[in-house]
Amino acid sequence: MRQETDQNMSNQDVNQSQEVIVQKVQQQIIQNPIEIAWRNLNVQATIESKQVIDGKTKKIKQEKVILNNVSGISRPGQFTAILGPSGSGKTTLLNFLSGRLVTKNLSISGELYLNGESIQSIEDYSDQIAYVMQDDILLATFTPRESFQFMAKLKLPHKSDQERNEIVENLIQELGLQNCSNTYVGNHLIRGISGGERKRTSIGVELLTEPKILFLDEPTTGLDSSTAKIVVNILKQISRRGVNVVSTIHQPSSDIFSLFEEVLLIVEGNIIYQGEVQNSVQHFSKLGYDCPKSYNPADYFMKLMSEGGIVAENIDGQIEEEQQIKNEFKNRIETFIQAYNQDVRDTCQIILKDPVQKSQTHMQSSFYQFYLLLMRALTHQIRNKFELILKTVQSLVFAIVFIIVFNNLGSGFQGIQNRNGASFFITQAQAFSSIMGSIASFSSEKPLYLRERANRAYGSNAYFWGRSLSELPMQIFYPVLFLSITYYSVGLNSSEPSKFFTSVLISILTFWYGSSYGFLISILCPKFEVAMAFVPATIIPLMVLSGFFVTISTVPIFWKIISYISMFRYGYEAQCINEFTGQSYFTPQGQPINPLQIHDFNTTLTEDCIILFSLGLFVRILCVIGLHFISNPKRPKLTVKQLSDQQS
Questions:
Q1: Assigned CATH class of 5-50+58-305
Q2: How confident is the model at residue 54 (pLDDT cuts 50, 70, 90)?
């Protein structure tokens, strides 16, 4: 990774970038801005735990309050910052307002308003809302310009190519990305742009559709103070267009804090202040909590919102007991809540304005989505040289080991076992490399898929089949590379020229099924580590039931059924049939022997190939279904209440 280039960016470049934004603000004032408000919002989580009662283990359900009857408002043209300690509920509030809150084990009640009109779900207005995640999830081998262009093609279907290019170029100028617009985003393996530039690129991807509400989850996390200030300054300029900018923030510096227009302080699920930043210090001063002049107000507020602040205040005197500290902290927070509730009717008045139009589906056709995703995946594979080299070296290592072990197969009776082993090695090498490769590659790309699907950029079908087809060339290349080196080197069946090509076809189909299986595991498992732990538990039984270790007809019926979905079984059977057909083998006494009768195979080579392809295709269909479910979690819906029921 290259050094943080934001620090090296000259002040002149930064100023020029910000001047461009200011000059364009007047031209880009959005029409029909949106105000978002919430009333009496409650979020509770049901937590299950196990406790031993009277010698018996019982499940105990407990309710934990995350948001406690909170009300507030965020207006267009303002940059509202949500501050609070860890676990205060600020991210839950942000996710609820943006429609990203998953309702599993949660109970939610309250009222939500857009421009004074009560709504059930923010999802109905998703095309006017954008959300920037805390982590910068971008494709490492794409440049900021390419990232913008790709998303513009998907999200702006009614724009011409020229209009899209103009939007992209303007965005690059506004975000100050001119110097890195053609540099790879990068990751820990690929040299790329700086952290600040990645954050601005993440913001730019969401700004392409000109949203009216922009939510951000801690956009300054991981950035140094100067870079964070640049990001916040840009967000403030964006709000001046009339965009409603709402962001959680973690311990901002005094310089950054002064850039906010509105601040919302939340602790233990309760809002204790919402209003203008410049009035916040005075508000708490009236309650008897004076912020020292040399103190960063944000740090002082964080101190007030934590029990540690009470300990610090008493550090020179007698340290209070833990319960006394908790009581003092509780009394303090109750004082803040009461003061806020007295002001909330004035600060959070909900006035009916121009109604907000619900979202209308404007997506590219499924075929065009498939085409764009296919081209992106192919480009990513070509540029990801590290992965290409790693997988090629893996195939070469497998080939070298294979040649060393099976360099003397023999043609007599002992050669039968050697050729059995060679057939199984070929099968398991292709299966394992494809399974592990698919898990590693998709697990790293899964967060990107979830982000883009949450933004409704494309469908699950288009994504999976585009990505699946993009890997087909390499799924053919690696088996061909392996067998081209090993097949004739160790003396496998060459009685007919077709034998080599048949072995290659079997290996490709085994690779196809294995990669399908790897995709499914990585989709179903939440993390890469979980997927890697899950692999041995499922692969070892399938491998044991290949027919190499034990005759399938002798195992119990349950395991016999499991063997019908084993890629090792059909790949190994097909390789053995290809290897032993057309060859003559004899016992040490000179009696002819058919090796295939020993294995008790009950399918032909053609049937094995058809089954491998069909099972691989079936598993890929399951992958599409799995992708759809993981990218469409249940979202909260609220009971609609008329505005007249909630008069101030």
A1: alpha beta
A2: low
